[in-house]
Amino acid sequence: MAEQYNSFTPIDSNTTPRYAGIATFMRLPYVTLADAASVDIGLIGVPWDGGTTNRAGARHGPRQMRDLSSLMRRFHPTFGIDPYALANCADLGDTPVNPIVIEDTLERVERFYRQVVEQGIVPLSAGGDHLVSLPILRALAARHGPLGMVHFDAHTDTFDRYFGGCKYTHGTPFRRAVEEGLLDPTRIVQIGIRGGLYSENDDAWGLEQGIRVIRIEEYFDLGVEAVIQEIRRVVGTEKTYVSFDVDCLDPVYAPGTGTPEVGGISTHDAQRLLRSLRGLDLVGGDVVEVAPPFDPSGNTALVGVTLMWEILCMLAEQSSRQRG
């Protein structure tokens, strides 16, 4: 194991029980942006679901995910690493949001992430509905240029408008991101897409732009290892973002989400798929659409934060490599 890099480490559960203390992501120190100069990876909550068109509740996701993250331990046995020995990781708190006005929230969230990115901090975020990915991508693309994306979801989120003229919902973020030049559509791969559509042409736009869509039927036909190879082929070696909507999972694993779709992937497959991104040039990631009101048990939040930890481990390893 690598030599200890820093003192930004989780609270020791042998000293303070996991149920005690103030809840932060992974029990890491809470650090304000003003004091974050030495932070490599910032864990951030975006407690907002104003882009939701039906079952709201993901605004409560970051708080419950922080609570359940007390169950995360510090050593990854598959990778053989302690991420907190490889990178300065801290909870940077929640972004400002406006629960009433969508456009104002998008501006507030983007401003927050621009401050994060300008300090050289890699953001790892907990949503919130999937529209929160758009202002995050705006901040990242301003620094890195158009990005590739590995997108796990039951839905493509490339719809155009809802209710006549609304451009900004949890079903439109990646159409807007492609239109704005934040994402390179030929380097986007979407995994787990399924469920009914409003019309036969709902998914046509993304396919026309060159997005690689792996619907759930193809996913099961190919098998996990072949899907992994396809993911790596599509995104290549350039800068890439990873976005995980928990409704990619079958609802038996993650019922606490706004738009569940039966016939999804398992949590074990999700871990394998995320771990396969190891070594890619990742500039950030998010786990979104955890909606605690639909799962009082907290299991969906536990699933979400466990997948967040998988991404954290890869980001920490990358941070260590880049630091040399």
Explain the overall architecture.
Helix content is 33%, strand content 16%. The chain has 324 residues and is an alpha/beta fold. The chain is built from ten helices and eight strands.
List the helices and strands and how they pair.
Blueprint lengths: L40 E6 L14 H8 L14 H4 L2 E6 L7 H17 L3 E6 L5 H12 L2 E6 L20 H7 L3 E11 L10 H6 L2 E4 H7 L1 H12 L4 E6 L21 H9 L6 E7 L10 H25 L1
Parallel strand pairs: 1-2, 1-3, 3-8, 4-5, 4-7, 5-6, 7-8
Helix pairs in contact: 1-10, 3-4, 4-5, 9-10
Defining key terms:
globular, 10 helices, 324 residues, alpha/beta, 8 strands, 33% helix
Strand content range? 15-25%
CATH level 1 class label: Alpha Beta
Order of helices and strands: EHHEHEHEHEHEHHEHEH
Order of strands across the widest beta sheet?
2-1-3-8-7-4-5-6
Number of strands: 8
Give the low-confidence spans.
none
- How large is the count of helical segments? 10
First-last Cα distance: 16 Å
- Structural class designation: alpha/beta
- What's the structural domain tally? 1
Q: What is the CATH T-level topology? A: Arginase, Chain A
**Main β-sheet description:** 8 strands, parallel
Query: What overall geometry do the principal axes of the alpha carbons give?
Result: globular
Provide a brief overview of the structure.
By secondary structure, the chain is α/β, with parallel strands linked by helices.
